[in-house]
Amino acid sequence: MDLNASVIIEACRAGAEEAARLAPFLDDLDGWDGADCDTGSNGAATMAALEAAMDSLDPRAHLRDALEAAVETIIRRGLGHSGMALGALFEAWAGALGDEHHVTPVVLRRMIAASLSPVASSIEWSDALAEMLGGAVREIQDLGATLPEVEDVFSRFSSQAQIGLVEATNEATGRIDPGGAFVALVLACIDASMRGDAGILQSFTAMLADLAERHSRAPEAAPPPPGRDFTVDIILEGTQEDLDALLARLGGLGARLSYVGRVDLFGMGEWRLHVDTSAPLAAHPTSGQVIRFQVCDARPDAQIGIDELADEGLSHRGVRLLQRRPMRRVERARVIACTSAPGLVEDLARAGAVVFLDLCSGDAAGIVSAATSRTGVTLVATCDEASASLVGTVASVLPSPAPGVPAILRAGSRDDLDVLAVARACAPLFVPQPGGVEAAPTLARMLRDGAHDALASCASAPLPPGGDPEGIAEALAEASRSGGDSWRLLISRDDDGPYTVATVRQLLSTRDASSTIDLETWDGGQSGPSLVAGCAS
């Protein structure tokens, strides 16, 4: 057959459906090893983005075009280390194809041989993934001078990858590598697409069921290891030198990272980095153009679930994947916080929000990707007109999860302290059970009410430049209109922080000398004026 873009297009369609159905299972595989229980969810979101991106591609296009489109999509909308691993695999394949006009068996073998050697990407392959893909590559290399058809070449590669996944399963603990299972699923979808045989996916599901049956137990999400409290996603445009400078700094932080990229003929590149670190601001690039800087708390939600004593298990394609009682999944409400203040990033993330620092006007895909949730409802708090405009554009095109319920709810926040108030009030909320889109109307009401109450109980005002005491007193009077008994102060990058804090404290003490001053302060580092807010308890 003529191996072209149609193979990847169809594989992404099938992969999106399979990954969505298998997401709870792959999440559980993550939890069996005390990890963060999100590999399946991240894989499903990545495949859904790939399916959408492939809709605009000509099926008759070259295979390389489809792979490059997939890499571009994963840079913008891929999730998790598993998404980055798939992007690196596709980038390696696209690079190996080069300028070849036709994908012959020889060309395909060369493409497969490059699987673990991407040019513009880097992945910390798990031992299971490295052995799985490495063994599959060796299987193709061992063909020697034999030249089977392209379908047979890839089928051998995919089948050997599945064998490698089985062999990499820990005999003592029964741990199945979730990232390896996700990549093996995508390979099986490509194999099924090339051969036009859905039975390949049936066999793959049966293989997973057989592995899971040996050690089926309740998953448990664990906190991140020391030094990796936050997950940071960065999109950087620039030169190789810009990337190298960032990688050197991240290496000095001891961060775990994966990145996927592409470089044009002029040496300009675009890279997506997925970083686990306890120093998110230190991970901010100092050169090149930062398209996205997104931070979230890497800790799991308060609990992964409550045993509902149901016994239906989880089945897919008629195969019973899990014999245990399923866990009811508990998740936090999805809240996105857009801020221009670096000093608020950690506090916003600790509250449970997905944080965008200096949201780029060209990164609508970042909002779309971050808004992915099981309920389909997301609350977004913006700090200025530019971020509000971008979010409004995204909100207008996303489909409603339920009648009368928009996918994106916009809080009425106007500045960074408003964003903080909304995040603290709404990000800790849990999705009402049983969750999913059925909970969307209730969750939307909770988020609307929470954001409204938070903004009603806090009033903020900008401080005058130069630290004029009379101007500061006027700002405090404006911020006190909420009747608040606590205060928040966000110092800008151009302000004299110690002087401003001291002045605010003195002026507050003159308002009520009999009470203790409840004042939270942040070295915000944002451009523009410092901000003060009065908040009611």
From TrEMBL:
MF-aspect GO terms: glycerone kinase activity
SUPFAM superfamilies per UniProt: DhaL-like
PROSITE patterns cross-referenced by the UniProt entry: DHAL
Domain named DhaL: residues: 6-192
Domain of life: Bacteria
InterPro entries: DhaL_dom (IPR004007), DhaL_dom_sf (IPR036117)
Gene3D superfamilies linked: 1.25.40.340
GO BP: glycerol metabolic process
Name of the protein: DhaL domain-containing protein
Organism: Schaalia dentiphila ATCC 17982
